[in-house]
């Protein structure tokens, strides 16, 4: 190996490691989750890999359609020992080094187009010191997707310039790796195709391009044709979107209209703002300037790849946000193209001559158009989807109104462009280039620091500081059953009208406990059968028994209970070691999934006989019910066989009643509850957040159903 290669390799690896260590000082301060349910999703995929040893994506024991499995596989190396708090810290440290490794392919891209060692190291480091690097604080695919995108860019630049089938295969392999990191990067196939065609046109002409492609890239042309036929055939049979796995929905209902164009310009503006405007203009100008036949093959190859990637990813992200992002600017999905602009900036800084004026005007004009309408909503805390929005509050304070903020941003672009054009007339390029480089070196790291400051300054989405370790609070299930324990969670709507609180309860339970591997009766998941359908109506035996040894119930779950040994009650839930196969001690029918009785519909609680029971048994059932009506008392009648009961429950009060019932052998006993009153409450929480309207009619709410272990033998059940 040549001394230069050794020096290059040692230098950039050292820089990447140093950047990873510095970044880890910030990322490991994060002790809690912030982005739900994304972080939970990738954590559970990683836990599955660690527990099963299988690289297939599994959630709750079922294989799911998830293409971007690379990050969970890497994440699995720090999970699996049952200490989620320690694993989370290790994951955040791993994130820092993974995302910092992007400096290596960025450095190699810069060196490939002839940039000197020092400037190449500078741009490699700068590609990590950007505001979007704050995403390394979370369990998100961005941590591995960012460097994989950069490696794919490097492979594409090689393939476009070398024009050999071996490099084409290398590029396709790099694209495959990038897609495994993030399915979004399937767009790189289009980038590859466009880049090859555009390079052929610049090399020859529009008319000569097909002949040139067939002469130099015959395998690529054939392979592209086959791939195109597969995609067309899949689309023809209505299965095209399924090629994207869990991201299939992103390929549906695509439309091109004025709103899409406007949103695309707004995304350009967000990118320009995140790159301090002037470095953005200069970097993009170099790319545009090298889209010409007279450019050197290496520079032109990078320019066509970079420009194609910039434009196609921009259109892809804008289309996605138009259809699924409420038309908002979400630069989280676009920041992958930042290294393209930065390498263009480094190349421009290394030049000895001024760039032509019109390549400077094009990115400036695009950013100015976007700044005319870009949203400048101030957010209290870091907005993960739009990291650049951290600047909105300060911009609004400076400009006082949204309109004047737009004016300020447009004027900033105009002033930046005018300054460049005026300097072009009176100054040599080198001092101006140094000024732009210094601006980028100061502004981008400061934005990154500010992004972390906003992350730490405000409580996270769960209402707690992200620096507060909650493993000791929420990890009680792992501590009880051990790292090898397996728990099935019986999910129940928690929190009532406070829907997000209820969701957070289960997110915390699953996030902080590796032993939670399955769920049942989660009716918030479409297609989940109702709880009563899980059991044989006559015997109470479960139709299927999960492999897990334990089950976890929320304390106020009034739907059913499994026969077994109760181990521990904590945080309003308790662990049961059910009998195997599963069977229900009791099942409630005729209620909503959150325990409210349905209007004018009798509610029944069926108590089943024990296995091997030979004589009738007196059982003791305790029921606690509440009246949701704020004004009127609620009449309730309960029929249990030996003793019936009727009475009233005061407005918004609860009543506890113990009942006796006789359970015959190999049979069941039934308790019936009825009430004539009806009250409107919030919507069914299993179908989404409440609307704020009391539009669901209910009778009473079952708060507790408890069957005592004590029994009394009887000669026969009373009639």
Give the tags.
single chain, 47% helix, 4 domains, alpha+beta, 22 helices, 14% strand, 719 residues, 5-stranded mixed β-sheet, 6-stranded antiparallel β-sheet
Polypeptide structure, described:
It contains 22 helices and 18 strands. It has a 6-stranded antiparallel β-sheet with strand order 6-9-10-15-12-13, with no helix packed on it. Strands 4-3-5-8-7 form a 5-stranded mixed β-sheet. It has a 3-stranded antiparallel β-sheet with strand order 14-11-18, with no helix packed on it. Helix 7 packs parallel to helix 9, helix 12 crosses helix 14 and helix 15 packs antiparallel against helix 19. The model has no long low-confidence stretch (mean pLDDT 89). The protein has 719 residues and is α+β, with helices and mostly antiparallel strands. It folds into 4 domains: 86 residues, no CATH class; 206 residues, no CATH class; 120 residues, no CATH class; 121 residues, Jelly Rolls (Sandwich). Strand 7 and strand 8 form a beta hairpin.
């Amino acid at each position: 190996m040549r001394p230069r290669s050794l020096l290059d390799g040692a230098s950039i690896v050292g820089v990447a490691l140093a950047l990873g260590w510095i970044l880890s000082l910030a990322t490991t301060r994060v002790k809690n989750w912030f982005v739900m349910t994304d972080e939970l999703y990738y954590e559970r995929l990683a836990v599955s890999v660690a527990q099963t040893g299988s690289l297939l994506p599994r959630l709750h024991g079922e294989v799911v359609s998830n293409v971007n499995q690379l990050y969970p596989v890497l994440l699995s190396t720090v999970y699996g020992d049952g200490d989620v708090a320690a694993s989370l810290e290790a994951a955040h440290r791993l994130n820092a080094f993974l995302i910092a490794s992007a400096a290596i392919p960025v450095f190699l891209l810069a060196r490939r187009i002839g940039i000197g060692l020092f400037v190449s190291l500078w741009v490699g480091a700068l590609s990590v010191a950007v505001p979007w690097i704050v995403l390394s604080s979370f369990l998100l695919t961005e941590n591995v997707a960012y460097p994989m995108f950069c490696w794919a860019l490097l492979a594409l630049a090689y393939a476009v310039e070398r024009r050999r089938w071996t490099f084409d295969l290398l590029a396709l392999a790099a694209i495959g790796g990038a897609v495994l990191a993030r399915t979004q990067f399937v767009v790189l196939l289009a980038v590859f195709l466009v880049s090859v065609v555009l390079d052929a046109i610049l090399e020859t002409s529009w008319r000569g391009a097909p002949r040139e492609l067939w002469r130099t890239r015959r395998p690529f042309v054939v392979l592209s044709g086959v791939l195109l036929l597969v995609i067309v055939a899949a689309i023809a049979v209505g299965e095209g979107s399924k090629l994207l796995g869990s991201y299939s929905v992103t390929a549906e209902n695509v439309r091109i209209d004025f709103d899409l164009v406007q949103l695309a310009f707004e995304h350009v503006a967000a990118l320009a703002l995140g790159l301090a405007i002037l470095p953005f203009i200069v970097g993009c100008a170099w790319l545009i300037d090298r889209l010409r036949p007279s450019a050197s093959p290496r520079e032109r190859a990078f320019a066509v790849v970079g420009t194609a990637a910039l434009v196609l990813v921009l259109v892809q992200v804008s289309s996605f946000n138009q259809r699924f992002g409420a038309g908002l600017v979400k630069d989280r999905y676009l920041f992958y193209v930042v290294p393209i602009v930065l390498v263009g900036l480094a190349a421009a800084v290394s030049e000895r001559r001024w760039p032509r004026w019109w390549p400077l005007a094009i990115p400036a004009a695009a950013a100015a158009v976007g700044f005319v309408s870009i949203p400048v909503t101030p957010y209290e805390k870091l907005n993960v989807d739009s990291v650049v929005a951290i600047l909105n509050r300060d911009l609004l304070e400076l400009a006082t109104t949204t309109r004047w903020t737009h004016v300020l941003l447009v004027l900033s672009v105009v002033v930046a462009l005018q300054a460049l054009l005026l300097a072009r007339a009176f100054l040599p390029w080198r001092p101006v280039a140094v000024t732009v480089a210094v601006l980028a070196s100061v502004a981008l790291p400061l934005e990154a620091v500010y992004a972390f400051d906003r992350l730490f300054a405000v409580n996270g989405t769960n209402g707690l500081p992200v620096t507060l370790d909650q493993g000791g609070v929420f990890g009680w299930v792992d501590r009880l059953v051990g790292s090898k324990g397996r728990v099935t969670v019986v999910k129940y709507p928690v929190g009532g009208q406070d829907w997000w609180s209820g969701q957070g309860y289960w997110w915390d339970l699953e996030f902080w406990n590796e032993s939670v591997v399955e769920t049942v009766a989660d009716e918030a998941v479409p297609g989940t059968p109702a709880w009563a359908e899980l059991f044989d109506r006559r015997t109470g035996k479960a139709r299927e028994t999960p492999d897990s040894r334990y089950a976890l119930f929320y304390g106020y779950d009034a739907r059913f209970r499994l026969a077994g040994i109760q181990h521990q009650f904590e945080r309003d839930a308790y662990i049961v070691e059910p009998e195997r196969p599963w069977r229900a001690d009791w099942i409630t029918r005729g209620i909503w999934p959150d325990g409210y009785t349905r209007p004018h519909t009798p509610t029944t609680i069926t108590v089943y006989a024990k296995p091997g029971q030979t004589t009738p048994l007196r059982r003791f059932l305790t029921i606690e019910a509440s009246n949701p009506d704020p004004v009127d008392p609620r009449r309730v009648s309960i029929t249990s066989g030996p003793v019936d009961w009727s009475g009233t429950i005061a407005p918004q009060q609860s009543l506890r009643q113990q009942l006796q019932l006789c359970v015959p052998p190999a049979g069941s006993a039934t308790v019936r509850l009825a009430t004539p009153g009806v009250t409107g409450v919030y919507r069914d929480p299993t179908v989404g957040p409440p609307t704020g309207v009391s539009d669901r009619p209910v009778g009473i709410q079952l708060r507790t159903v408890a069957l005592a272990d004590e029994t009394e033998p009887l000669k026969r059940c009373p009639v």
